[in-house]
Structure formats: structure tokens, C-alpha cells
DNA sequence: CTAGAACCTGACGTTAACGTCAGAGGCAAG
DNA sequence: CTTGCCTCTGACGTTAACGTCAGGTTCTAG
């Protein structure tokens, strides 16, 4: 993408970001407050986003669903958009991965117990 | 187990339940407040539990980790200790199972994205 | 020009499973 | 009897990601 094209990129407002990502407008403002998402401002003060803000917000949702806090996501954002990582960030990445793995195992165990009960209650009407 | 043996079962106090299950004393009191765990009382008012309270509390923890609320657990408890279920309870069991499955999928997707980044940052020191 | 949709900045409310503190009793050992 | 640990009730505090409301400005279609 050239500089000319980047300068010509159509900017979108907060409502379009929210609808595109399937979240509330309030949530998008919250992400900015937490330092996750930076927006330009129109002369009248309205937030203006680049179009890649939509998949970015979707990514935030995915990380939230995985149990990462907004603070942790801000600390790990450089790993994505710059590719730059120091030792501390790599350690955090691995820690989060291990935590998610452990949580998957916990959920699987709970799922097995539920399936067990469901099987029993289905055969004993 | 005979009636005589049941009557002779050694009752334990709240601290032993908590230590045995790996939770805080406060948590055990909370479970009683939410109707999850019923305790006898000593003449002086101290809570007395049967020994199977320990695995029961562990079970609560597992369900909490799977995202069930204490309210939902109380609604589903009869499915375990009585084996009795009505249509509503069976529907709730399936709904929880489906929710947990969906969450496992979400976590797995997030895990894949993290592993991807970890692989990249490891090959680009 | 005007109505209505969309946007703005605060700021308080929500939820669940506990943590924590205060003040007061209870229980076994020496 | 007293020391020290355990237990009691009651009540306020915590956390994260928003929801919701108030009161005001801005954009846009007709």
C-alpha cells in the first residue's frame, strides 16, 4: 500500500466500527479509554477510524473471550502490529497460552461430567 | 452404607472442608448462603459437614470454572444426588453443555492465534 | 431549515464470587 | 486459667467490561 493510497483511505465513524465488529459503541469508546484503540478526531471532535479497526476490535473480543484483560492486550499489541518482542513479552505470550490450554482442559473435564449426567438422565426417564 | 454407619460418620468443621477442597472458609460459607451446601450446626452454632462435602465443593469449583453460576448449579443439583430430572432440567443441562463446547472452540481459536504469534516471534529474534 | 439519527463527555450502575475487616464467642492444651 | 487457634455474624470492598442515563452538539436527508 502506497502513501497516497493510505492518505486516501476512507475513514469511518464509531457506529460503523461497532456494527462491523458486532459490539456496542460504548465498548469501542472503552477500548480507546484503555489504550487499545487510537482514533483520529474530526474538527468537531468525532472519532474517525481506519477500516482495519473493525478486525482489530474483533481480535480484542477474541482475546477477551480467552480471558486476557485489556491491560494485557495493550502490553502485547506490539507483538502484532510491529512484530517486535522483548523477552518479557515472549514470556507473557507463553504464560497466556499455557493458561488458555489449562482452561481448555478444565472445560473439557467439566464437559465430560455434564455429558455423563446427560447420558444417565436420558436412559432413566 | 448402613444407617448405623451413617450415624457414626465423623463430622468435620468448616476449616477442614476448606483445606480439603482447596478453597477459602469464606467460599464455603458463601456456598451455604447460595443454597449449594447445607450444614448441620453444633450446639454452639458451628457448622458441621459430612465428609462428602469435600468432593462436593470440588465439584462446585469445577462447575464455576466452566462458567456455571451458583444459581444454575442449585437448579441442577437434583440431577446428581437424586438422579431425578424433568424436561426443564434436561434442557438446561444440554444448554450448558453446548455453551461449554462453544467456549472450548473459542478458546482453541484464540490459542491458535497465540501460537501463531509465538512461532513468528521465536523465529524473528 | 428542520427533524431525526448519530455523536460527544461525564458519571453512576451492574454482576459474581468471593476478600477483608471488626468484634465476639468457642475449644483444646498446658 | 490462659494462650492461641478456630469459628461466628454482619457488612463493606473488589474487579472487568461494559450498560445506561443525562444533557448537549453535529451530521444528513428531504
Portion of residues within helices of chain A: 55-70%
Please compute the radius of gyration of chain A using only Cα atoms: 20 Å
CATH architecture of the largest domain in chain A: Orthogonal Bundle
Which chain pair has the greatest contact? Answer: A-B, 34 and 34 residues
The overall number of domains of chain A is 2
- Tell me the number of strands of chain A: 2
- In spatial order, strands of the major sheet of chain A run 1-2
Strand content of chain A: under 5%
In angstroms, what separates the terminal alpha carbons of chain A? 64 Å
Encode the helix/strand succession of chain A as letters: HHHEEHHH
- pLDDT averaged over residues of chain A: 91
Describe the structure.
Two copies of one chain form a homodimer. With 125 residues, chain A is mainly alpha-helical. Chain A has two domains: 1-67, Multidrug-efflux Transporter Regulator, Chain: A, Domain 2 (Orthogonal Bundle), CATH 1.10.1660.10; 85-125. Helix content of chain A is 68%, strand content 3%. Chain A has six helices and two strands, in the order H-H-H-E-E-H-H-H. In chain A, strand 1 and strand 2 (47-48) form a beta hairpin. The termini of chain A are far apart. The model of chain A is unreliable at 1-6 (pLDDT under 50). Chains A and B meet through helix 4 and helix 6 of A and helix 4 and helix 6 of B. Chain A binds a DNA duplex (30 and 30 nucleotides) through residues 13-15, 23-27, 29-30, 34, 42, 44-47, 64, 69-70.
